[in-house]
């Protein structure tokens, strides 16, 4: 790619600003994406944390669900955190009746999996593909990955549960690296976008 790739952050709902800041710190050009025309202009996309049921509803409302599915199917690099991981799952174990996902990763996820006692916590997570020691994982009513298909690479586990995966150009983590000031995961994703260009 001759020019610096442009990375979008899906800005329907969730912690958009934190991802934009983290991407900029990782050396990427980044901007919010709300409309199909904006999606067409980016080389990669981050789907933030937030509330996956709301995000699903808004994606429909904004006419984004099909364009998102098409881009992901076509191999656009995409990185989902928390609710974003749920949006990238081919299947949710316990969806709300009207809840749909973009899909792209052959996995089944369980929403709010870590339970009430432990709705939010931090833990050091050893993440395959990120050098320099574990990342600080911030888990906020986080999902885990219940099962994965043969093409999905497991990148991290916490407490015996899968919390980070990659399939092709789709990366997903249960936790929120955008909240830690450690930009290694955003750097990894930025490299994925550059390599795909
Ligand atoms: N921090 C988050 O993104 C929480 C995810 C939320 N529990 C959901 O199901 O969408």
Automatic annotation (TrEMBL):
<dbReference type="InterPro" id="IPR029062">
    <property type="entry name" value="Class_I_gatase-like"/>
</dbReference>
<dbReference type="InterPro" id="IPR021196">
    <property type="entry name" value="PdxT/SNO_CS"/>
</dbReference>
<feature type="binding site">
    <location>
        <begin position="50"/>
        <end position="52"/>
    </location>
    <ligand>
        <name>L-glutamine</name>
    </ligand>
</feature>
<dbReference type="GO" id="GO:1903600">
    <property type="term" value="C:glutaminase complex"/>
</dbReference>
<feature type="binding site">
    <location>
        <begin position="140"/>
        <end position="141"/>
    </location>
    <ligand>
        <name>L-glutamine</name>
    </ligand>
</feature>
<keyword id="KW-0663">Pyridoxal phosphate</keyword>
<comment type="pathway">
    <text>Cofactor biosynthesis; pyridoxal 5'-phosphate biosynthesis.</text>
</comment>
<keyword id="KW-0315">Glutamine amidotransferase</keyword>
<feature type="binding site">
    <location>
        <position position="111"/>
    </location>
    <ligand>
        <name>L-glutamine</name>
    </ligand>
</feature>
<dbReference type="GO" id="GO:0008614">
    <property type="term" value="P:pyridoxine metabolic process"/>
</dbReference>
<dbReference type="GO" id="GO:0016740">
    <property type="term" value="F:transferase activity"/>
</dbReference>
<dbReference type="GO" id="GO:0004359">
    <property type="term" value="F:glutaminase activity"/>
</dbReference>
<keyword id="KW-0378">Hydrolase</keyword>
<dbReference type="GO" id="GO:0005829">
    <property type="term" value="C:cytosol"/>
</dbReference>
<dbReference type="GO" id="GO:0006543">
    <property type="term" value="P:L-glutamine catabolic process"/>
</dbReference>
<feature type="active site" description="Nucleophile">
    <location>
        <position position="82"/>
    </location>
</feature>
<comment type="similarity">
    <text>Belongs to the glutaminase PdxT/SNO family.</text>
</comment>
<protein>
    <recommendedName>
        <fullName>Pyridoxal 5'-phosphate synthase subunit PdxT</fullName>
        <ecNumber>4.3.3.6</ecNumber>
        <ecNumber>3.5.1.2</ecNumber>
    </recommendedName>
</protein>
<dbReference type="GO" id="GO:0036381">
    <property type="term" value="F:pyridoxal 5'-phosphate synthase (glutamine hydrolysing) activity"/>
</dbReference>
<feature type="active site" description="Charge relay system">
    <location>
        <position position="178"/>
    </location>
</feature>
<keyword id="KW-0808">Transferase</keyword>
<comment type="subunit">
    <text>In the presence of PdxS, forms a dodecamer of heterodimers. Only shows activity in the heterodimer.</text>
</comment>
<dbReference type="InterPro" id="IPR002161">
    <property type="entry name" value="PdxT/SNO"/>
</dbReference>
<dbReference type="Pfam" id="PF01174">
    <property type="entry name" value="SNO"/>
</dbReference>
<keyword id="KW-0456">Lyase</keyword>
<dbReference type="GO" id="GO:0042823">
    <property type="term" value="P:pyridoxal phosphate biosynthetic process"/>
</dbReference>
<feature type="active site" description="Charge relay system">
    <location>
        <position position="176"/>
    </location>
</feature>
<comment type="function">
    <text>Catalyzes the hydrolysis of glutamine to glutamate and ammonia as part of the biosynthesis of pyridoxal 5'-phosphate. The resulting ammonia molecule is channeled to the active site of PdxS.</text>
</comment>
């Amino acid at each position: 790619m001759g020019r610096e790739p442009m990375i979008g952050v899906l800005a329907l709902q969730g912690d958009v600003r934190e991802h934009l800041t983290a991407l900029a710190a990782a050396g990427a050009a980044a901007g919010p994406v709300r409309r199909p025309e904006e999606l067409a202009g980016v080389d990669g996309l981050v789907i933030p944390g937030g509330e996956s049921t709301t995000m699903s509803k808004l994606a429909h409302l904004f006419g984004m669900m099909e364009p998102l599915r098409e881009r992901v199917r076509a191999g656009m690099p995409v990185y989902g955190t928390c609710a974003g991981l749920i949006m990238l799952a081919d299947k949710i174990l316990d969806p709300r009746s009207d809840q749909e996902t973009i899909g792209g990763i052959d996995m089944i996820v369980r929403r709010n999996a870590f339970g009430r006692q432990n709705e939010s916590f931090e833990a050091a997570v050893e993440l395959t593909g990120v050098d320099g020691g574990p990342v600080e994982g911030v888990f906020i009513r986080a999902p885990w990955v219940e099962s994965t298909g043969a093409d999905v690479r497991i990148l991290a586990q916490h407490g015996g549960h899968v919390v980070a995966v990659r399939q092709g150009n789709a990366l997903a983590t249960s936790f929120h690296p955008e909240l830690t000031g450690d930009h290694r995961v955003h750097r990894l994703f930025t490299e994925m976008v550059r390599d795909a260009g």
